[in-house]
Amino acid sequence: ELGADVYTPQPPVFYWLLQVLGAPFGESVGGVRVGFVVLAVIGVVAAFAAAHTLYGIGAGLAAGLFLVIGPPYPTVAPTVAADVPSLSLGLVALAFVAHAVGPRASRWWGVGAGAVAALAVLTKFLAAPFLVPLAVIPLARRSGRRVLPAIVAGGAAATALVLLVHLGSLAELWTGAVGDHEGAKALSRVGDNVDRLRWLLEWRTPFGWLVPAGAVAFVLSREARKTWPLATLVPAAALFTLYVRPLPDHQLALMACAYAVAAGPALALGVAQLRGNTRRLATVAVVLFVAAGVFQEQRRQTRNDVPEPPHVTWATDA
Known about the structure:
Elements: H1 13-25, H2 29-55, H3 57-68, H4 73-76, H5 83-100, H6 107-121, H7 131-140, H8 144-165, H9 170-183, H10 190-198, H11 207-220, H12 228-231, H13 233-243, H14 253-272, H15 276-304, H16 310-317
Helix pairs in contact: 1-2, 2-3, 2-5, 2-14, 3-14, 5-6, 5-7, 6-8, 7-8, 10-13, 11-14, 13-14
């Protein structure tokens, strides 16, 4: 039982996911990795769906493709850890709320958004910044009075279910998922996190050029500034990243998601406002940068595709 017989450094929904993914893909490291990659792809599709629903097909394609090439998201996608599953669920919640704010949408979209967001946070608290755009999008579309109560109801229901299932071990779960992480903060400084954020957009990656280009489009283009509700994920994610100490590499996947859903749609709408050959050239440039990013990430994955060292295999068998 989680929290009693099994120590858990993550909220309990992560372990539910491990069991769910083990059914179709096999209860092995290789099988679960396949399941995690499927969740990562679902996250990409959800990023596309959210931006597409709110701002059109170009914005959706840019959000999804930027996430595909956004380090370290593709690198950690097959890793058996709670990061990408929680972020993928957060992106699904954004896709649901994007549908919920439609003038004729059922309130069940809002309930689903709240429930999935709660499950994302209860998979790993890394998904907590998604709650900001989840609330801002309905307010920006002036449908908050209709959608926000549904979101709260869905989130409360999902949270209550998880708490009821683990009612006898809540204190232990809190200690593992929160207390022990808080106690590790002395191992690093906030300045270390600031440096990691500064160098995340590495100029030798296409992502490191496309995200600033999206920021420039956001500043210069009125159409691009319409994406500001999605862009609220960036400051929320940055503040959370500064708070978490020590900060492992895989947790920077949160910033990759935030940059993708903010910069991608903004750049797409900004390019769409250009005229004639300027728009064509800008579109071609973005496509080439994305293609280069896919190639670069494929090379990175190929370099990582090596057998485990013999002494690691021996230790695992022992």
